[in-house]
Amino acid sequence: MRRVTGKQVVDTSAADFDELVSRHEGVVLDVGTGDGKHAYHVARRRPAELVVGLDAAKDNLRRIAAKAAAKPAKGGVSNLLYVWAGVERLPAELHSVTEVHVLMPWGSLLRGMLGSDLTMLRDLAAVCVPNAEFLITLNLHAWRPAVPEVGTHPEPTPASALRDLAPVLAAQRWRLDEADYLDAEEIDALATSWTRRLNSSRDQLDVLALRGVINARDAGGGDGA
């Protein structure tokens, strides 16, 4: 596992990651973390949990990773890892994830969350414990006009997501329970640079939030293992 600590990238072994997991009540995985501000925000608010911000672009992580690695008096947080990796090839050391965040995905990550990359959904489910929670937020302006990443998927609404996307996700052990538009306060609470940038360029930012459970114990009669 390649961990970004600022200017450096260091290897974190499976044993080191296991030890970190053992010292925390859960593992929150922020997929496509971008510059890492959302993961940092979550780690500050939830010190009992280990937060892993994962992104394929390591340079975007350097500034906030350096801050996270500093002493607590200078904003450092001990329960936060920034990992240099793409979601298409998750680190072999990653496991025991109790919550997955995918905020404002783009590119291949957006295609995956829309059900166009079933391997991505399966691989993420494989690193999660039974009944892991998920939050996906979709920037609906990706359909206005539609970008190539959305393919043939029409702009989702709460109703269409529950009707059309839910069965696709369910087949990969992602049970979609709720789909709702976020208001301005809820969007701001995501604490991402991307949402703030989009908010500043539009009179109104439209975001659809999808929430549910991965590896639900009642899915297929198993325990999700």
Question: What would you note in describing this structure?
Answer:
There is one protein chain. The protein is an alpha/beta fold and about 220 residues long. The protein has eight helices and nine strands. The chain has two domains: about 1-85, Rossmann fold (3-Layer(aba) Sandwich), CATH 3.40.50.150; about 95-225, Vaccinia Virus protein VP39 (Rossmann fold, 3-Layer(aba) Sandwich). It has helices spanning about 15-20, 35-45, 60-70, 105-115, 120-125, 160-170, 185-190, 195-200, and strands at about 1-5, 10, 25-30, 50-55, 80-85, 95-105, 130-140, 175-180, 205-215. The strands form two sheets. A seven-stranded mixed beta sheet has the order 5-4-3-6-7-9-8, sandwiched between helices. The longest helix has 13 residues, at about 160-170.
